[in-house]
Design brief:
The radius of gyration is 26 Å and the shape is elongated. It is built from eleven helices and 13 strands. It is 41% helix and 17% strand. It is α/β, with parallel strands linked by helices. The strands form three sheets. It has a seven-stranded parallel beta sheet, sandwiched between helices. Strands 10-11-12-13 form a four-stranded antiparallel beta sheet. Strands 5-6 form a two-stranded antiparallel sheet. The longest helix is centred in the last third of the chain and has 39 residues, at 279-317.
């Protein structure tokens, strides 16, 4: 694939003579989900048009969704925004957006796209971008987590911070959906927890501050393996079962074996085929899956009940009343079991950290009253 030339959108070719990213330049990586597009817009429109530091954005979206973010951002600022392309050379004064259904990964000086396994049920996901940025750019990375549900981005922001980079989260009180920044702030020693309206000024200051070159930043084997998995390599061949301890849990997406991975005090999971989950996303996925399993069981029992009644009707027609009565009794027993399952389904709740914290908040308030 020939990279697109952002300097000349009509050309289709990159100008290799242009000044590209050099080794002491910073980069900015941003992750957002529900409510995050408004936050991204507010941040971008406040940046100076000559803002040099390249920006890379992952916003959760459905695979079939048309990529609208570049068009929106190009109406707000002169900084050129476009969907990233595979093997595209990174340039300053650019905003690169992850295209739908592709992970956005960074290597030294270039962008890579892949359709590797989903992380936290998303592709693009925030953690692969953050992880690859930290691995290749170390203390030159500024990571930002904006509005969104659950906690994609927390593990990646932890890696950025522990590679010497800057960790920023949107103040949860400022976020339309506070879960992602709140979870990141709880698990990572963030440098800034601020409203979106204040981020442009902070980024402008950080981008003009010299970065001491650190060639010894954390390039551990575990992160390298996980970047390879996100890039589409075979997770099993890469050694997905060797980067953590085998757990008793199975992958909600493919039922593969999940390994427990520990980063400091942060725990997450990855299956041997490559799917990855935070603890919170895994909990939400498992409890969501329970509802489907209960409905499947209820459907099977109701199917048996209908068949038993059908056979009972036939036996009655051919004058076998005693045997027919037994079939009708078994059908009634099945109906009662289906009713019990229906009550269980109605009482089942999908759990997440947010829901449990909300329940705890209500219990504390009730205790005060």
């Amino acid at each position: 694939m020939t990279p697109y030339d952002n300097n000349n959108p009509g050309s289709g070719y990159i100008d290799n003579s242009a000044r590209h990213l050099i080794e002491h330049d910073r980069i900015i990586v941003i992750g957002a989900s529900a409510g995050g597009l408004d936050a991204i817009k507010k941040l971008v429109e406040r940046l100076p048009p000559d803002f040099r530091t390249p920006i890379f954005i992952v916003w959760h979206m459905a695979p079939g969704m048309r990529g609208i973010v570049p068009d929106i951002l190009n109406k707000l600022n002169a900084i050129y925004a476009a969907h990233a392309l595979d093997n595209e050379v990174i340039k300053p004064n650019r905003i690169y957006i992850a295209p739908p259904d592709h992970h956005l990964l960074l290597e030294e000086g270039i962008i890579r796209l892949s359709r590797g396994p989903k992380e936290n049920h998303f592709r693009p996901a925030v953690d692969p971008l953050f992880r690859s940025a930290a691995y290749n750019y170390g203390n030159r990375v500024i990571g930002i987590v904006l509005s969104g549900r659950l906690d994609d981005g927390t593990a990646g922001l932890w890696r950025i911070k522990h590679s010497g980079g800057i960790a920023i989260v949107q103040d949860p009180d400022d976020a339309e959906v506070p879960s992602m920044p709140a979870n990141a702030a709880r698990e990572v020693a963030v440098d800034y927890c601020i409203p979106v309206k204040d981020m442009a000024a902070v980024l402008t200051q950080l981008s003009t501050t010299a970065v001491p070159l650190n060639r010894e930043h954390m390039k551990d084997e575990k992160t390298k393996i996980e970047i390879g998995i996100a890039a589409g390599d075979s997770a099993y061949d890469r050694g997905s079962l060797k980067i953590g301890e085998l757990s008793p849990y199975t992958c909600p997406e493919c039922q593969g074996v999940l390994s427990k991975i520990t980063d400091g005090d942060l725990t997450r999971y990855r299956c041997h085929t490559g799917h990855a989950y935070s603890v919170d996303t895994l909990l939400a996925s498992i409890t969501e899956k329970i509802e489907g399993s209960l409905y499947n069981a209820m459907a099977a029992i109701e199917e048996s009940m209908m068949l038993l009644n059908h056979i009972g009707d036939h036996l009655s027609e051919v004058n076998h009343p005693q045997l027919a009565a037994l079939y009708f009794k078994k059908a009634k027993d099945a109906e009662l079991r289906a009713d019990l399952l229906r009550d269980t389904v109605m009482g089942h709740e999908q759990l997440s950290n947010d829901r449990l914290l909300e329940e705890l908040y209500k219990l504390k308030n009730a205790a005060k009253e």
